[in-house]
Design brief:
The two termini are 28 Å apart. A 6-stranded antiparallel sheet has the order 1-2-3-4-5-6. The chain is built from 7 helices and 6 strands. 36% of the residues lie in helices and 16% in strands.
Length: 294
């Protein structure tokens, strides 16, 4: 629930090592399993086949120096490896159950610490900035925030497990210019993409925007249906590319959004609530998979 910068879709951020409360659950789980798989591969090179079966697992467990040399993932990862899970990841019939239990224990302990520190979830209605009203349904990743402004109804929508596009290393348009250093993808802010539908009587306008909690950038502005939003299959003229508008018009749209409470501070809340909702659904998913299939 501590809102910090997001990770790149291409890897786990250096700021979020395994065992950090700032790393979203699904990403930490991916890092844990990936590293455990790597450990299994590394240990397989140790030739212990000639030993009795009773000593093989013991040999794998008695390599603390190698474990510490390869990994720097914190006490959780090292504890998991010492238990022999990584070394026998592909041999144990209960490996999925064991991995899920480790992750669930970590999540529960993290929840307990957050509660002790008084860090509230952004999903708590007391955390929602006034005068917005939050709608969040269990099992559904859609988040809606609604407010009234004069004679307008404003609806902001975002998806909890959806992030803005990261730079594509394969796209030549996003390659660094000559003389520029290539950006570290671990330090790229993913941010949040959301839409704001401004409804006025029988008409509506939809503004898509991106925010990283510090800046808010308008992506496009389109005519919309008051109830359904933008019809993606329509051939009706959607409007010009926003970046091609005159700078004064772009600035006016930004002011228009700020007056209605959609600004950088609101963007920071969107970052928090997206992360907390994703974490909530991840924990629900973990419990379901563990109970039903493990």
């Amino acid at each position: 629930r501590k809102h910090t910068k997001a990770t790149s879709a291409f890897g786990i951020s250096k700021r979020w090592a395994v065992g950090s409360s700032d790393m979203s659950g699904s990403k930490r789980m991916a890092a844990l399993l990936s590293r455990c798989a790597f450990a299994a591969s590394a240990y397989s090179s140790v030739r212990v086949q000639c030993l009795p079966a009773s000593l093989r697992s013991l040999t794998c467990l008695q390599q603390p120096q190698r474990t510490n040399t390869i990994f720097s993932g914190g006490p959780l990862l090292n504890r998991t490896i010492r238990r022999g899970y990584a070394a026998d990841a592909y041999n144990r019939p209960d490996s999925l159950k064991r991995a899920l239990e480790v992750e669930l224990d970590w999540e529960r302990e993290n929840e307990r610490k957050l509660d002790e520190e008084g860090i509230a979830s952004a999903l708590d209605e007391r955390e929602v900035p006034e005068p917005w009203k939050l709608t969040a349904t269990e099992g559904d990743c859609k988040l809606e925030l609604r407010r009234a402004y004069n004679n307008e109804d404003i609806l902001v929508t975002l998806i909890a497990n959806e992030a803005s596009d990261d730079p594509d290393p394969e796209d030549p348009r996003e390659a660094p210019l000559e003389g520029e250093e290539e950006p570290d993808l671990d330090d790229v802010d993913v941010g949040v993409v959301a839409s704001a539908r401004i409804i006025k009587g029988k008409d509506a306008m939809e503004i898509n925007f991106r925010t990283d909690g510090t800046y808010l950038t308008i992506l496009d502005v389109s005519k919309a249906d008051p109830e359904k939003g933008v019809d993606q299959d329509s051939t009706e003229y959607p409007g010009p590319r926003f970046e091609e508008l005159d700078e004064d018009v772009q600035d006016a749209f930004e002011t228009y959004m700020e007056v209605r409470g959609i600004d950088a501070e609101f963007g920071e809340y969107l970052m928090r609530v997206q992360k907390d909702k994703e974490q909530q659904e991840y924990l629900r998913w973990l419990k379901h998979i563990h109970k039903t299939f493990a």
